[in-house]
Amino acid sequence: MPTNVLIAGGGPAALEAALRLHRLAGDRVSTTVLAPNSDFTYRPLSVLEPFAAGGAWTYPLARVAADAGFAHERGTLARVDAASHVVETTDGAQIAYDVLLVASGGVPVRPYARATVFTGSAADAEAVHGLVQDVEGGYTRKIAFVAPPGGTWPLPLYELALMLAERAYELGIRVELHLVTPEEAPLGVFGLDAAREVEALLRDAGIALHTSAPVDSVDDGHIALVGEELEVQRVVTLPRLEGPSIDGLPADPSGFLVVDVHGRVTGVPDVYAAGDATAFAIKQGGLACQQADAAAAQIAAGAGADVDAEPFVPVLRGMLLTERWARFLRRDEAAGDEHADVAGHALWWPPTKIAGRELAGYLEGIDEELGRVRGRPVQASLGIDARSIEVLSLHS
Ligand SMILES: Cc1cc2nc3c(=O)[nH]c(=O)nc-3n(C[C@H](O)[C@H](O)[C@H](O)COP(=O)(O)OP(=O)(O)OC[C@H]3O[C@@H](n4cnc5c(N)ncnc54)[C@H](O)[C@@H]3O)c2cc1C
């Protein structure tokens, strides 16, 4: 009998796990993906939408299910009865499992009442598009991009700020832009070289950077920083993530699932977790996929497949993108700072924003089939200097 694997979630971690499991375990597993969504939305490219420069593509889960050999059950995980190996959905349906993998993501929370929150949804992209239009029309001239304290992936905020600066510059409009972040250095999680590069990019774009600046509240465009007050017309921020707090599973105080290096939820037999739902500090799509790979390998080995159950060893890959250029940032967490890279050319292939071992190439295959062209280097260096950039094609 194949091992009955239930994956709860329909985002990068869930799909990477399903694809990896299919490759490693084949018929040794019978996989069901429980998710409320009928499509997978590729959120990272949503930062282009407010600038009408591209957007978040979607992929039908039915198509992925057919390719990766899983059944897609529409529904939302509500409760886990770990002793009986049964889950209950919010509709009251019960689904039995041999192995459960929770990849249901974090719960986005609005960090400030009076700010435009960018989650990557179409509605948020529309709201930021309105802001871009206000800047283009000369109605709004002072904007702060504020990264909230706590778990969030800050990179899209840098992209939005840099793209707005580019747009204003192109139109010859003077704007005052601030980037406010609790980080000690901009995108410092990628190491010092990357932070220096990002700092230079912000400086060149005329964006004032405020680091080590956790912002508790935003009051009508008034932002209190240590020893400094900012008055702006608009504030753009990102959601803060909280844990999913799943009934029946132990969690940390913020509701995140605590896992070991193989994705096993501490203290609960046969339950795994991957991605933003876990207590791992960095909430990022590429890392979510790496966690999913580790869990899938362990599950495949448990199902009798002849595989090495490699543990999760984070390698952080980030692509900082504007309409004009991209920077590729990579840091091998385990190897320390000396293994951090920053470059204007691809440091991994395919050069996608969510660098999933299975998912990146798989989605690229679908894009090619559909004739969609993803933002990626199409021309080698312009050759101006050693840090010269590659030209991106962002439009299909
Ligand atoms: C604007 C923006 C830009 C980003 N840019 C990048 C980037 O460039 N690179 C990068 O690597 N990361 C980026 N990220 C972060 C990345 O999107 C997340 O880290 C990643 O999506 C996490 O994947 P996940 O599968 O763990 O969770 P999610 O993507 O949140 O997916 C969770 C899935 O589970 C489903 N679900 C929710 N609750 C339940 C439940 N109870 N039962 C069953 N299913 C459930 C949801 O419908 C969803 O399908 C960005 C995030 C945002 C918001």
Q: Please give the count of helices.
A: 7
Mean of pLDDT: 92
**SS-based class:** alpha/beta
| Gyration radius, in Å | 21 Å
Q: Into how many domains do the coordinates divide?
A: 2
Give the proportion of residues in helices: 10-25%
Gross CATH architecture of the largest domain: 3-Layer(bba) Sandwich
What is the overall silhouette? Answer: globular
Tell me about the largest β-sheet.
Answer: 5 strands, parallel
Distance between the termini: 45 Å
Bound small molecules, deduplicated = flavin-adenine dinucleotide
CATH topology of the largest domain: the name is: FAD/NAD(P)-binding domain
Could you name the CATH homologous superfamily of the largest domain?
A: FAD/NAD(P)-binding domain
Q: Order of strands across the widest beta sheet? A: 5-2-1-9-20
Total number of beta strands:
25
Strand content: 25-35%
Low-pLDDT runs: 376-396
Query: Which class of the largest domain in CATH terms?
Result: Alpha Beta
Description:
The chain contains seven helices and 25 strands. It has 396 residues and is α/β, with parallel strands linked by helices. The protein folds into two domains: 3-108 and 241-302, FAD/NAD(P)-binding domain (3-Layer(bba) Sandwich), CATH 3.50.50.60; 109-239, 3-Layer(bba) Sandwich (FAD/NAD(P)-binding domain), CATH 3.50.50.60. The strands form eight sheets. Strands 5-2-1-9-20 form a five-stranded parallel sheet. A hairpin with a 2-residue loop joins β15 (218-219) and β16. α1 (12-25) runs parallel beside α6 (285-302). The radius of gyration is 21 Å and the shape is globular. Flavin-adenine dinucleotide (FAD) binds at residues 8-14, 34-37, 43-44, 46, 76-77, 103-105, 118-120, 153, 155-156, 275-277, 283-286, 288, 353-354.
